[in-house]
Design a protein that fits this description.
Elements: E1 2-10, H1 13-28, E2 35-40, E3 44-47, H2 60-66, E4 69-72, E5 79-82, E6 86-92, H3 102-121, E7 126-128, E8 134-137, E9 140-150, E10 153-161, E11 180-181, H4 184-188, H5 194-209, E12 212-215
Parallel strand pairs: 1-2, 1-12, 3-4, 9-11
Antiparallel strand pairs: 2-6, 3-5, 6-10, 7-8, 8-9, 9-10
Helix pairs in contact: 3-5
């Protein structure tokens, strides 16, 4: 089974949300194969279905002065930060094609980063499934995970801190947990090649869900 890998560069969050919803409808209709979007966002905050605005520490005026928008979306979880240097992945996947096992699919997202970090960087990470869901290195989260599902097709997905400005997480209470965050740059002590990391994530994700990655252009799918 194949999965389309679409590399989008930097995309404004609202536009990426429109793209996801369009692809979700096409996947539901069986018009496209499973697809993974890989991209970065300008600084933005998103609130999930359990999102508490109190977990955003900046005032509306402070957010506006920084050019930061806030979106309430249909994924699980609380508040999340996205920004440059963070690799975001949006799987548009029909879970029925992968055995109709929601929990397994979410675990496989986490395992993508556990395997990649261990095999490529010698970093021991773990995926937690409790209220601290995500990929952690010690007491610091490196990858946030949160999806939404409609008629067995997923959207939203993961946010992997590669070269992320960790100071921006001071704007929020990450996922409502008052927990620490880290990045690949922070752990290795050097700036990472985003394109190389993106390509590794594409391969590891495809392997985790048992699909063959195929490069695709958005214009051919939308």
């Amino acid at each position: 089974m194949r999965i389309n890998i679409v590399r989008l560069g930097t995309v404004e969050y609202g536009r990426a949300l429109e793209i996801q919803r369009r692809l979700l409808e096409r996947r539901i209709a069986g018009e496209i194969d499973n697809t993974l979007l890989l991209l970065e966002h300008p600084p933005v905050l998103t609130l999930g279905t359990r999102g508490d605005p109190a977990n955003v520490y900046l005032t509306a005026e402070e957010l506006e002065s920084r050019g930061v928008k806030v979106f309430r979306v249909e994924r699980g979880g609380d508040v999340t930060y996205h920004g440059p240097g963070q690799l975001v992945g949006y799987p548009i996947v029909d879970l029925r094609s992968l055995g109709s096992d929601i929990r397994k699919f979410i675990r496989n997202i986490g395992q993508t980063f556990v395997d990649l970090l261990g095999e490529k960087y010698g970093i021991a990470a773990e995926y937690r499934t409790d209220k601290y869901a995500g990929v952690w290195v010690g007491d610091e989260k490196i990858t946030a995970v949160g999806i939404a599902i409609r008629r067995w097709v997923t959207m939203h997905g993961f946010a992997f801190n590669v070269n992320t400005n960790l100071e921006h997480f001071g704007w929020i209470n990450p996922c409502g947990l008052s927990a620490g965050v880290t990045s690949l740059k922070n752990l290795t002590g050097r700036e990472q090649d985003m394109e190389a990391v993106r390509d590794m994530v594409a391969c590891y994700f495809a392997a985790a869900v048992g699909c063959e990655p195929v490069n695709a252009a958005l214009d051919d799918l939308i």
